[in-house]
Amino acid sequence: MNFTEAELKHAYRLLAPRPTIIVTTESKEGHVNAAPFSFTMPVSINPPLIVFASVQTHHTFKNIEDTKEFVVNIPNEDILSKLWITGEKFPEGVNEIEKAGLTQLDSIKVSPPRIEECLAHLECKVHWIKDSGDHKIVVGEVIHADTAKNILKDGLLDVENIKPVLHLGGVNFVVGDHLRQV
């Protein structure tokens, strides 16, 4: 194999495709926020901890810093275009779930809502937050999880049927074995 040097500013793109989630939060004033993230992964089984990275200027991060709660919503191909709308830069206080034409569901153990159209939901309390370069690392402890029926097959995500959304970078996503752009 021959190798060529990669631009360091794009090194993270070599770790793609990445699962895409929609994080829902609520401000201290009760304003709902939703935003997509692909810098995410599980980091512990016991206790169940997940992590995502956010720039600290995002409304999502500010809400989490204030309330210490969030919900990870797992989308699929059916709502890819709506997921993209949640990533638009709306003024603080605008509900991206409503703007995207998605449906809010009350959560079971945290204040921020779940998104009905998503396949699964992980309700989280902040475990810790740390600086990491130009992002903040948010580790959340999953305190409640639910899934739509039939998304698991033999205890694993049934990717052939549910078609999870994987982010390559920019407007480029992989769904199943197809490249999709929004």
- Summing up helix and strand content along with how strands pair, one would put the structural category as mainly beta
Estimated share of beta-strand residues: 35-45%
Shape: globular
Could you list the spans in which at least 5 consecutive residues all have pLDDT below 50? none
What is the total tally of β strands?
Answer: 15
Description:
The protein has a single domain, classed as Roll (Pnp Oxidase, Chain A). 13% of the residues lie in helices and 43% in strands. The model has no long low-confidence stretch (mean pLDDT 94). The longest helix is centred in the middle third of the chain and has 9 residues, at 59-67. The chain contains 4 helices and 15 strands. It has helices at residues 59-67, 80-86, 96-99, 159-162, and strands spanning 18-19, 21-26, 32-37, 40-44, 49-54, 69-74, 104-105, 114-115, 120-132, 135-147, 152-153, 156-157, 165-169, 172-175, 178-181. A hairpin with a 5-residue loop joins strand 2 (21-26) and strand 3. The strands form 4 sheets. It has a 7-stranded antiparallel β-sheet. A 4-stranded antiparallel β-sheet has the order 1-13-14-15, with no helix packed on it. The chain is mainly beta.
Topology, element by element:
Blueprint (H helix, E strand, L loop, with lengths): L17 E2 L1 E6 L5 E6 L2 E5 L4 E6 L4 H9 L1 E6 L5 H7 L9 H4 L4 E2 L8 E2 L4 E13 L2 E13 L4 E2 L2 E2 L1 H4 L2 E5 L2 E4 L2 E4 L1
Antiparallel strand pairs: 1-13, 2-3, 2-6, 4-5, 5-10, 6-9, 7-8, 9-10, 11-12, 13-14, 14-15
